[in-house]
Amino acid sequence: MTNETTPAPNFIRNQVRDEIEGGQVTKIVTRFPPEPNGFLHIGHAKSICLNFGLAEQMGGECHLRFDDTNPAKEEQAYIDAIKEDVSWLGFSWAGPVRFASDYFDQLYAWAQHLIREGKAYVDDLSPDEIREYRGTLTAPGKPSPYRERSVEENLDFLERMRVGEFGESEKVLRAKIDMASPNINLRDPILYRIRHANHHQTGDKWKIYPSYDFTHGQSDAIEGITHSICTLEFEDHRPLYEWFLNNLPVPAKPRQIEFARLNLDYTLTSKRKLKLLVDEQIVDGWDDPRMPTVSGMRRRGYTAASIRKFCEMIGVTRADGGLVDIAMLTHAIRSDLEDNAPRAMCVLKPLKVVLTNVAEDYEEVYDVPGHPARDDMPMRKVPFGRELYIDQDDFMEDAPKKFFRLAPGKEVRLRNSYVIRCDEVIKNDAGEVIELRCSVDFDTLGKNPEGRKVKGVVHWVSATHGVPIEVRLYDNLFMVEQPDRDKDVDFLEHLNPESLVICQAIGEPSLAEAVPEDRFQFERMGYFCADRHLSKPGQLVFNRTVGLKDSWAKIKQKG
Q1: Residue 523 Cα distances to 11, 41, 155, 338, 415, angstroms
Q2: Residue 212 annotated as part of some ligand binding site
Q3: Residue ranges of the Glutamyl/glutaminyl-tRNA synthetase class Ib anti-codon binding domain (predicted)?
């Protein structure tokens, strides 16, 4: 088990370091190439940290390049969100933002080159026929009847495809490789499809769009990428990646290296399924704090440093299939906020307390540290008076013996204040407790009462000076570790009905100064973040980032 003080395995970093020290590579150039068809998620964060992190550590550079070859599913809003996420995570790309569409003219010229070399042809088979002709994992494919068209005919058809003379699916351009190859990716893969769609970068210039496989390696070569780092699902595509580089007059030959993708329990990272959650309004957009998107995690209160720390903790290996415990992720943010989040008191379920031996106009104000271990954080003012609120869970009318909070006739200490005793319980007509009448022992500020032990400490807020706050308690969106594991069960059946609970809470006065994305430890409650969209002066919404309990720390100790 990896200890936080021991660097997690990263075979790619070790390999690249050896190449630089051995003189095979003088300057590493990596790239992060997202498709602009959705928001980035935690799996992308791992790739971002790997690609940008390697470039930083090895004195190289990393490009941000959008793989924008499918305009029907792409939007400018996704491009903007992705750029913001990468910057927020703390990384800067080298040069301008790049697009695969920047290279469409060159890719088209290279497609013509393959035709002239007898290595590509225009095919009239339908999509279903192409699948049928391709064969299976155990049976070879068979050649298309259009495979031996002349160079002149193929060039003519390709140009007519480009200008929009044919309908979608009428024709495709395919590489001519090996229909009997044991690797299905080499069985005459598609290079261009007809798409009558307006492109967000190129407008209506193109009526054909290149495939991912044809675009990716050549874009890498144009940019001088040295290492094309991708997940293991592309391992079987590597021979095709290399075939294109070896059969085209490209200016460089990048090398593809694969690593295991991140599989996090209780989490989905399928962009298609995340989009379904958004489209069906099961969540409130791509940045809903329950979503595993970078923007959702940011809105929930995760810091960029905690996400980078988590990606470092899990390491980079080729071992695939294992689930990462989500407790590792919550440990990373909890450790960050434990050190850096100022403290505050907030009552999530207010129960009124009237201190009967305190005058109505009595008030004192405590100077309380912003953080118990940080002298650099300012003190905060906590007012105390006759009426205050405690949390309903801190009172029990028929309390068991080891309930060390408030109960009739029992004492408890108010955090940073006096010991109080519950003398009377007030109920409404329905028999619900609505108010407690208590008395204060004024000889207990900063010291224990004479002759008795008071074990319980509760948080509280002044009823006069408290700030109304909407608190959103977020939990895992799914109730099972692998929501989409069972292909016979709709993953939506595993949704957690308690993934969001809203409380109308009351916070201490210092919280009135909070601005969006300010983070706090609400004492005894957990870590919370002012919502970056919903919070505004006089109307605060706080999202629970994570509770106080750290299960991963306990797991590490056992390990």
Answers
A1: 41, 30, 71, 11, 9
A2: yes
A3: 341-441
CB contact at 8 A, 348 and 382 = no
Q: Are strands 387-391 and 433-441 parallel, antiparallel or unpaired?
A: unpaired
Other beta carbons less than 10 A from residue 424's beta carbon: 12
Q: What is the mean pLDDT of residues 429-444?
A: 96
Instruction: From the candidates 207, 271, 309, 380, give the one annotated as an active-site residue.
Output: 271
What amino acid is encoded at 3 in this protein?
N
In the 8-state DSSP scheme, what is residue 319? -
Indicate if 549 belongs to the active site: no
Catalytic-labelled residue, pool 142, 255, 261, 349 = 261
Q: How many Å apart are CA 312 and CA 535, to the nearest integer?
A: 32
Percent of the chain whose predicted confidence (pLDDT) is above 90: 91
Residue 277 has pLDDT above 60, yes or no: yes
Yes or no: say if 416 and 374 are a contact pair by the CB < 8 Å rule: no
Active-site annotation holds for 261: yes
Amino acid at 38: G
Has 36 been labeled as part of a binding site? yes
From 404, 423, 250, 313, select the one nearest 49 (Cα to Cα).
313
Kindly state the tokens that stand for 417: 């204040």
* Known catalytic residue at 413: no
Amino acid 143 reads P
CA–CA distance, 319 with 454 (Å, rounded to integer): 53
The answer to whether 91 and 52 are in contact (CB under 8 A) is yes
The pLDDT tens digits for 312-338 are 999 999 987 679 999 999 999 999 999
Average pLDDT rounded to a whole number, residues 24-48: 97
Express each pLDDT in 349-385 by its tens digit: 999 999 999 999 999 999 999 999 999 999 999 999 9
User: Is 152 known as a binding-site position?
Assistant: no
Is residue 261 a known part of a binding site?
A: yes
